[in-house]
Amino acid sequence: MTEYRQASAFGKRREPHTVIIARGDDIRHFTIRPWLAAFVGSVLAAMAIGYLLATSYLVLRDDLLGATAARQARMQQAYEDRISMLRAQVDRITSRQILDQQLVESKVSELLARQSQLTQRHGRIGPILDRVKGEAGGLPESAPLPASKPELRAANQPVIYADSSAASFWSKRPAPSGPETAADRADRLFVAINQSLRAIESEQMDGIGTLTENAFKTADEIASALEAAGLPVDIDTDDEAVGGPLLPIDAGMIFEARVRELDEALEKLETLKAIAKEMPIHNPAPGKPVTSSFGVRRDPIIKRPAMHAGIDFRAPTGTEIKSAGAGKVIKAGWNGGYGRMVEIDHGNGLTTRYAHMSRIRVSQGDTVDTGDVVGEAGSTGRSTGPHLHYEVRRNGTAIDPLRFLKAGKAIGKLL
Fold first, then answer.
1. Which of 29, 53, 78, 391 has its CB 3.0 to 4.6 Å from that of 20, i.e. a possible disulfide?
2. What is the mean pLDDT of residues 297-308?
3. What is the chain's Cα-based Rg?
């Protein structure tokens, strides 16, 4: 056993650490130095700490794995939510596009239907418009003709809707909050076209109504003038007692009703014009002055009061005398004091006489129209000079021709 001397610095003697191993007679001993003991202790401590750390890791590993899995699950859920949101946006955009397409298709279909309706209306009122243009001389100049061909208005021109339901249909979509899209521009264009079509329809209806009113008004004026002259006017009317349940009608039925009403008004006007043109209300010597009126007057030959059965027109010899109305010649030749005379039967008991003519240009039995030349003025028979003696008789009784001439003058601007 080795002995150490006492350390002079500390006053202690450090005992060495000796390990003795005996096996029978064999005895071994080991001396452990301090640094070796420290090294071994450090190794053991490190192993203990590593064991503890490994044990702690194994104990806490499930929690760490769970936290990692939960974090990954949260990230996956966030990605899935984002994907779902994007899909929802795509679905909304797709649905909006489908809705816009359906709305555009419905609007196009409606516009095509409206265009077809306007075309059919034009075909329906075309012949009537031709009749109206033919009767334009008998209608006031202020009477507008409905548009025969639709002309679209500018998109920015304001037009009032014909009904509120159409306005609600075209304004179903809310106003865009963001920038104007192609669908919004198309929607605005459709609204403008629809407004223009409705304006055309409204103008057509108003024009037809105005024409109908003016046609009835003109027909009534002609009938009133004829009746004031004592001429019969026999026109069949539908003013009989009628009735039935009140049923709603659509725009197409309203248009047809307006067209039928206009057709009836034009038919009545045409009938009255035809009657007026055949009536003896026209001047037999246009532009010639009346020198002697109907009634009692001083006879130019015997110079005493006498009945004058007609009126006299101053007309030089050879002036053409025209028929005052349509009819049939029942006398054409010499007739005593009348000289050369033509008498025309106009029906309904009305006849006209044209006397003192120098020449007769029709024969008995001829059919004449209004304005046809029946002879030439002269001074034959009981006459003091060239002129036309004109009479109107009803059932053989002479009546004042001026009433008929006044009626013809009033009606002339309407024929």
1. 29
2. 81
3. 60
How many C-beta neighbours within 10 Å does residue 211 have?
Answer: 25
Residues of 71-93 as b/e, b for ≥16 C-beta within 10 angstroms?
eeeeeeeeeeeeeeeeeeeeeee
Q: What distance in Å separates the CA atoms of residue 413 and residue 338, rounded to the nearest whole number?
A: 33
pLDDT digits (tens, 9 = 90+) for 90-149: 888 888 888 777 777 777 777 777 777 777 766 666 676 666 666 544 454 444 445 444
The reported pLDDT for the residue numbered 305 is 84
Residue for token digits 């001047």? 283
Those residues whose C-beta lies under 8 Å from the C-beta of residue 294, and which sit 6 or more positions away, are 308, 309, 310, 311, 398, 399, 400, 401, 402
Q: Is 250 left (phi over 0), alpha (psi -120 to 50) or beta?
A: beta
> What are φ and ψ of residue 126, in 5° steps?
-55, -55
Residue 407's nearest CA partner among 314, 272, 288 is: 272
Q: What is the pTM of this model?
A: 0.54
Map tokens 């003896």 to a residue. 280
DSSP 155: T
Average pLDDT, whole number, for the chain? 76
Beta-carbon-side half-sphere exposure of residue 354 (alpha carbons within 13 Å): 34
Contact 166, 193 (CB under 8 A): no
Nearest partner of 18 among 30, 10, 6, judged by Cα: 30
Nearest to 344 by CA among 360, 359, 329: 329
What span, in angstroms and rounded, lies between the C-alpha atoms of 401 and 415? 20
The span from the CA of 187 to the CA of 107, in Å, is 9
In order, the DSSP letters of 348-365 are TTEEEEEEEEEEE---TT
